[in-house]
Design goal:
12% of the residues lie in helices and 52% in strands. It is mostly beta strands and 67 residues long. The strands form two sheets. Strands 2-1-5 form a three-stranded antiparallel beta sheet, with no helix packed on it. Strand 1 and strand 2 form a beta hairpin. The radius of gyration is 12 Å and the shape is globular.
């Protein structure tokens, strides 16, 4: 399973269970720019799923990692 590791400007790292190709199809336009100013992530925590929004201007890098 491929996952993405998203690096944020504040030093945090977020993980998404999605391939880079799927991420690009969902969040980027034909020129490679983000479609909107934020992306939504579902976080798994002890109390259940939590949805958070990340402003795209805070994303500094995206890396595809293998499980």
């Amino acid at each position: 399973m491929e996952n993405l590791k998203i690096y944020l400007s504040n030093g945090e790292k977020m993980f998404m269970n999605i391939s880079l190709e799927e991420f690009n199809d969902i969040h980027l336009d034909a020129e490679g720019n983000f479609i909107s100013g934020f992306i939504s992530l579902e976080l798994d925590n002890l109390k259940g799923d939590l949805i958070t929004q990340i402003f795209t201007k805070h994303i500094v890098a995206i890396e595809e990692v293998e499980n």
